Amino acid sequence: MISAYPACFIKEKNGYSVIFPDLGTATCGPTLEDATYMAVDCLAGYLYTLQREKQAAPVPSPLDQVDPAAVLAELADEDGETAVYETFVNVITVDVEEYAKRHFEKSVKKTLSIPAWLNEAALQEHLNFSQILQDALKERLGVQ
Protein backbone atom coordinates (compact mmCIF):
# COMPACT_ATOMS: atom_id res chain seq x y z
CA MET A 1 0.00 0.00 0.00
CA ILE A 2 1.33 3.41 -0.96
CA SER A 3 1.51 6.08 1.73
CA ALA A 4 1.61 9.73 0.66
CA TYR A 5 2.39 12.79 2.79
CA PRO A 6 3.01 16.43 1.87
CA ALA A 7 6.52 17.70 2.47
CA CYS A 8 7.86 21.25 2.50
CA PHE A 9 11.09 21.56 0.53
CA ILE A 10 13.22 24.50 1.58
CA LYS A 11 16.18 25.55 -0.56
CA GLU A 12 18.96 26.83 1.67
CA LYS A 13 22.56 27.83 1.18
CA ASN A 14 23.92 24.29 1.56
CA GLY A 15 21.13 22.26 0.00
CA TYR A 16 17.53 21.40 0.79
CA SER A 17 15.69 20.78 4.02
CA VAL A 18 12.54 18.67 3.85
CA ILE A 19 9.91 18.93 6.56
CA PHE A 20 6.84 16.75 7.01
CA PRO A 21 4.45 19.05 8.91
CA ASP A 22 1.96 16.26 9.64
CA LEU A 23 4.64 14.05 11.16
CA GLY A 24 6.89 16.53 12.95
CA THR A 25 9.94 15.05 11.26
CA ALA A 26 12.51 16.35 8.81
CA THR A 27 15.53 15.43 6.73
CA CYS A 28 17.85 17.12 4.26
CA GLY A 29 20.17 16.65 1.32
CA PRO A 30 22.80 18.62 -0.59
CA THR A 31 20.84 18.43 -3.84
CA LEU A 32 17.15 18.25 -4.66
CA GLU A 33 17.61 14.64 -5.82
CA ASP A 34 19.37 13.65 -2.59
CA ALA A 35 16.82 15.50 -0.46
CA THR A 36 13.97 13.71 -2.24
CA TYR A 37 15.67 10.34 -1.71
CA MET A 38 16.17 11.17 1.97
CA ALA A 39 12.53 12.29 2.24
CA VAL A 40 11.34 8.89 1.01
CA ASP A 41 13.68 7.18 3.49
CA CYS A 42 12.52 9.45 6.33
CA LEU A 43 8.84 8.86 5.56
CA ALA A 44 9.32 5.10 5.26
CA GLY A 45 11.28 4.93 8.51
CA TYR A 46 8.76 7.00 10.42
CA LEU A 47 5.74 5.02 9.21
CA TYR A 48 7.55 1.69 9.66
CA THR A 49 8.33 2.59 13.27
CA LEU A 50 4.69 3.50 13.90
CA GLN A 51 3.61 0.15 12.46
CA ARG A 52 6.09 -1.81 14.62
CA GLU A 53 4.88 0.09 17.70
CA LYS A 54 1.24 -0.53 16.68
CA GLN A 55 0.49 3.20 16.54
CA ALA A 56 -1.79 4.83 14.02
CA ALA A 57 -0.24 7.12 11.44
CA PRO A 58 -1.51 10.72 11.29
CA VAL A 59 -3.91 11.55 8.49
CA PRO A 60 -2.04 13.41 5.73
CA SER A 61 -3.08 16.99 5.12
CA PRO A 62 -4.38 17.91 1.68
CA LEU A 63 -1.57 19.38 -0.39
CA ASP A 64 -3.33 22.72 -0.81
CA GLN A 65 -3.62 23.13 2.97
CA VAL A 66 0.13 22.93 3.67
CA ASP A 67 1.58 26.42 4.02
CA PRO A 68 5.36 26.55 3.60
CA ALA A 69 5.39 30.10 5.04
CA ALA A 70 3.93 28.79 8.30
CA VAL A 71 6.54 26.01 8.39
CA LEU A 72 9.27 28.59 7.76
CA ALA A 73 7.94 30.82 10.52
CA GLU A 74 8.53 27.99 13.00
CA LEU A 75 12.12 27.66 11.77
CA ALA A 76 13.02 31.35 11.86
CA ASP A 77 16.04 32.37 13.91
CA GLU A 78 15.88 34.84 16.81
CA ASP A 79 15.64 37.77 14.40
CA GLY A 80 12.72 36.13 12.64
CA GLU A 81 14.80 35.45 9.53
CA THR A 82 15.93 32.35 7.70
CA ALA A 83 18.42 32.08 4.86
CA VAL A 84 15.94 30.59 2.40
CA TYR A 85 16.04 30.89 -1.35
CA GLU A 86 12.85 29.08 -2.35
CA THR A 87 10.17 26.81 -0.93
CA PHE A 88 7.65 24.44 -2.40
CA VAL A 89 5.37 21.63 -1.25
CA ASN A 90 5.38 18.23 -2.86
CA VAL A 91 3.87 14.87 -2.02
CA ILE A 92 6.30 12.11 -1.03
CA THR A 93 5.08 8.57 -1.59
CA VAL A 94 6.40 5.23 -0.43
CA ASP A 95 5.26 1.64 -0.17
CA VAL A 96 6.42 1.10 3.41
CA GLU A 97 6.19 -2.70 3.28
CA GLU A 98 8.31 -2.95 0.13
CA TYR A 99 10.77 -0.31 1.32
CA ALA A 100 11.20 -2.08 4.65
CA LYS A 101 11.94 -5.38 2.92
CA ARG A 102 14.74 -3.76 0.89
CA HIS A 103 16.19 -1.44 3.52
CA PHE A 104 15.11 -2.22 7.09
CA GLU A 105 14.59 -5.96 7.14
CA LYS A 106 17.34 -7.04 4.78
CA SER A 107 19.15 -10.06 6.17
CA VAL A 108 22.88 -9.99 6.79
CA LYS A 109 25.12 -13.02 6.94
CA LYS A 110 26.80 -13.69 10.28
CA THR A 111 29.46 -16.25 11.04
CA LEU A 112 29.43 -17.81 14.49
CA SER A 113 30.95 -20.69 16.35
CA ILE A 114 29.22 -23.32 18.49
CA PRO A 115 30.52 -26.59 19.97
CA ALA A 116 30.51 -29.50 17.52
CA TRP A 117 28.27 -31.64 19.77
CA LEU A 118 25.66 -28.83 19.86
CA ASN A 119 25.77 -28.47 16.09
CA GLU A 120 25.23 -32.22 15.61
CA ALA A 121 22.33 -32.32 18.06
CA ALA A 122 20.66 -29.36 16.36
CA LEU A 123 21.14 -30.88 12.89
CA GLN A 124 19.58 -34.14 14.07
CA GLU A 125 16.51 -32.15 15.16
CA HIS A 126 16.41 -30.26 11.82
CA LEU A 127 16.56 -26.93 13.64
CA ASN A 128 16.77 -23.67 11.74
CA PHE A 129 19.86 -21.95 13.15
CA SER A 130 19.00 -18.54 11.68
CA GLN A 131 15.49 -18.52 13.12
CA ILE A 132 16.65 -19.64 16.55
CA LEU A 133 19.33 -16.94 16.64
CA GLN A 134 16.83 -14.29 15.54
CA ASP A 135 14.32 -15.39 18.18
CA ALA A 136 16.97 -15.42 20.91
CA LEU A 137 18.28 -11.97 19.94
CA LYS A 138 14.78 -10.50 19.85
CA GLU A 139 14.02 -11.95 23.28
CA ARG A 140 17.29 -10.68 24.73
CA LEU A 141 16.76 -7.20 23.22
CA GLY A 142 13.08 -7.06 24.15
CA VAL A 143 11.95 -6.41 20.57
CA GLN A 144 9.44 -8.12 18.32
Please describe what this structure looks like.
This protein is α+β, with helices and mostly antiparallel strands and about 140 residues long. It folds into 2 domains: about 1-105, Double Stranded RNA Binding Domain (2-Layer Sandwich), CATH 3.30.160.250; about 110-144, no CATH class. About 40% of the residues lie in helices and about 25% in strands. It has 5 helices and 4 strands; from the N terminus they run E-E-E-H-H-E-H-H-H. It has a 4-stranded antiparallel sheet with strand order 3-2-1-4, sandwiched between helices. A hairpin with a 2-residue loop joins strand 1 and strand 2 (about 15-20). Helix 1 packs across helix 3. The model has no long low-confidence stretch (mean pLDDT about 90).
Secondary-structure content class: alpha+beta
In CATH terms, what is the architecture of the largest domain?
2-Layer Sandwich
Our estimate of the beta-strand percent is: 15-25%
Report the CATH C-level class of the largest domain: Alpha Beta
The main sheet comes to:
4 strands, antiparallel
Number of strands: 4
CATH topology descriptor of the largest domain: Double Stranded RNA Binding Domain
Q: What is the CA-based Rg, rounded?
A: 22 Å
The span between the termini is 22 Å
Shape: elongated
Uncertain spans, ≥5 residues at pLDDT below 50?
A: none
Number of domain units? 2
* Mean pLDDT figure: 90
Order of helices and strands: EEEHHEHHH
